[in-house]
């Protein structure tokens, strides 16, 4: 029978109180109480009413909960409790983790009798307070995302008449013919363009969603099939579209651009790494670069550390929670899929949003249709997504940032990264070596395939418009992946049960199988063997679906059974879906019928190479003129409260940074708990060796120069690691380019400049790029509330992530001022470089004098500081970043909960005559350190030859700064600084 | 007696198994990580261990209530073996999600040795949010084997459902029978419910309890994450102070004592 088991709370429920707060925040003050009810809709052929009573007790906790079946006796007990009820549940086919767990619990208890039982989870909210039906609907909409959830609302009257909410069993019923269609490409160019842009036409004329193939690519495909004298099937076309997508093939970085014939990636990024590695010789850190799912460095004699950073911007724009959780759990698979499988050990994150207070609606379609989500909703959803993804997976998430700028309103940027740990040798064999062999079984492990996540790869290669596909949204299930990860990394790998492994990410099986097939030169897949979430899916959808938490492995025939048995005993589903061979072809059969046969060579290398031309980005820049403010005390407080500078503690404390027991320098440092730019961890508890990690980006500098934007990000990402005690020679980098309108010559001009900086600076610093990723179309086109067209492009954004290896965790240095009497030193030259700074932004200016990097001078300071830290002469060290010296000093004071007296006249400077400029200039290559007086002579000796000076002393309980004229220009108590630093985002 | 052997449970989203095993090893025990399905397949395995440890994590993703689904699985398949284990005067520790599992199993509080009865719960934090922070604790129990010789200790918490909840009657009994072990503190006094000192809103600031014998212990904070000097919150300041006083920098940290107490119990 089908029934509803409703579990209600007998004690005050914190979830309900939080919900009430959110409703009030939306402006619906009339609602004065909320109850949350967990509902399990059980659909079972054999279980009877008495059994369902038992299910109720299995699914609830008698200390704080009660339950009722099908609303028995409910109405009388609820009389007067609420005015309307809202139910939110998943749409049919959406991954329902709680429902699945409930079903597993029921199976485990009842055994055979529970066969065929399915459980669907939903929540009912009882809301008390006079509210119009219109407002009730608005509240309900704020609870759910219509792309993945259904909403039902009932007023009390209807609720009591019906004896509660309705019994709804959201089973998937598909009415599609599960066949493959032929597509005619011998059509006019106009039609080819439409197919490429909007997708294959179904029989009713509707389009299946973007292939994101341009006319050149469509013609190449047409010619390929014409030569074979047949029409392509839909699955062949979809498969090519996935493999050739910008997302997978990085067509812009591979394209010929102006004089760079071999493309930006090969001739710049990859080449810089080659040069650095050659120069370093035996001191080369790199174990694997650009060839696998992650890059890898040597950690010690026994282990490698892997690193990878991804973006999940487009899915997060549509469903912030779902986009972010699948982003973080997805990039975990880049560790699991590295070499013979690395254990994920650290997550990192970075989010770019518009101001969460911005409440102006924008729409994808005319007449206020299809609104995009507001910045606050996106921010909270994304933060929550990484929270659940990281915490549930048992991977510490200590390192990250939030960056705010109004141009991230159309599309947020969501960066997620994962480090992994893998032994250098597995049973004596090099763990980075892997290859599928002809005859190996193709095995899919993890979740089943559903309609979720169709066209993710091609969608993210397009701008966000009205036609963006809803099915591109995926739901994460971190526990399924945790089981899979444990079973593979901790058991199957060391038992040598597989020859090769890769992730099912963008493009799903179509990409992972075809990618592995390169290793042996061929594959054949029997599509009907692929486990699906529900019957009736069209073959092409099964093949390209991006349903999450799946890996593909190549398993030698004689080990298949042992592997399947191991997975079964760990609660992980695994299935043989085909065989690798050396046929030179990628073949897919469906129930004995061949529906895809493409030459691997064409599939992987047939994509026509783009030829692109760049142009200069037009700029009209000047330095602003404004009077120096009288009180810099007020300015400093206002700067501390700025979104890009203030405390992000509410994010740091909801991400578990202690799990695995590896943390050394934590996200919040000092007694005053200030967000630090770099984090240190000991991934092997038995060893004192450590990894340090940081990230840096300066999108506002890009409005002036994308070259300096990139150069400053590289300098800062390196400097942040030097500050905690990492030697320059032990640092590597990753690049994540998030661009906009990337086919416009001017945008390509900006890209070319920034890539040139990456090349030059990485070579100068000797810090190789080991991995990277790009997302080239972060644009939004739509309408505002008055129907005027709006286009928002993200500012060209380059995130540089850095990874360092340290000999001794116990020598790491934190940012907080430590003890009274310590001397404060400024390292590095401060120049009149406020272009693109937070200070200018606070006055509404961009400016012109953007910070520039002098690698030689930076290197001198970094190497000297490394020596001083190695000799344990440095008590604290904080990099100077957004907001300049003033902010670095304030943060170190707040973190240490101690004051400082500073004399700006002593600062090493050049071309600066104003105190505000000196305090807030963002010149690169600068650091503030403190040193115990007894160590100062030794410290100064080590720093000789660099621009540095003693500028003050740790003292008292306030920050007092004397200006260039010798008079006090800034005086704040630690209490006031602390308050300014914390207030902006405190209420989230 | 010989060195105690520790069964550290894993599987289904348990994720603190490795660091828990590391803590026991550092304390001088012989830990072995075993998948719950392997134990169900061969329940006799349990006999060869002296200590059973339910580590932290997200068993079943907290679906159907934190710890509930794994508790159901263990109750369905291993209940008699567990009772036998307890009866042999062996030790059980449940940390964080492990604490949630053993309260759902009714191994705790086991008032009047009524194991199997659920009478305390760990509800959603007052903030309705996952909280990862360092907190101070005071030890109140004389009988708990694991906290012998500990007065105050600083440990990290990391959970979304840790609000200790019980009826007035049960709370009183726990007090009378010396089963309340750790309470959240604010400097010298108790947290008195104040956030973030009491990070979840737990009744009476309770962070950990034991059964009537003192041999079964459950707590929300993570002692296995405070074994090494560099794991501590704000250790760089401690290091600076010690260094300038000419003192040596220790290698271990205070959480280790909890695991050493377990090992010493078998001496």
- Which consecutive residue ranges of chain B, at least 5 long each, have pLDDT under 50? none
Query: Between the first and last Cα atoms of chain B, what is the distance in angstroms?
Result: 5 Å
CATH topology of chain B: Rossmann fold
Tally of DSSP helical segments of chain B: 7
Q: Tell me what the CATH architecture of the domain at 813-988 in chain A is.
A: Alpha-Beta Complex
CATH fold annotation of the domain at 813-988 in chain A: Phosphoribosyl-aminoimidazole Synthetase, Chain A, domain 2
Average pLDDT of chain B, rounded to a whole number, is 96
Q: Give the averaged pLDDT of chain A, no decimals.
A: 93
Rg value of chain A = 29 Å
What value does the Rg of chain B take, in angstroms?
18 Å
Oligomer: heterodimer
Alpha-beta content class of chain A: alpha+beta
Q: Tell me, what's the shape of chain A?
A: globular
Number of DSSP E strands of chain A: 44
The general outline of chain B is globular
What does the largest sheet of chain A look like? 7 strands, mixed
CATH architecture of chain B: 3-Layer(aba) Sandwich
Instruction: Kindly report the name of the CATH homologous superfamily of chain B.
Output: Class I glutamine amidotransferase (GATase) domain
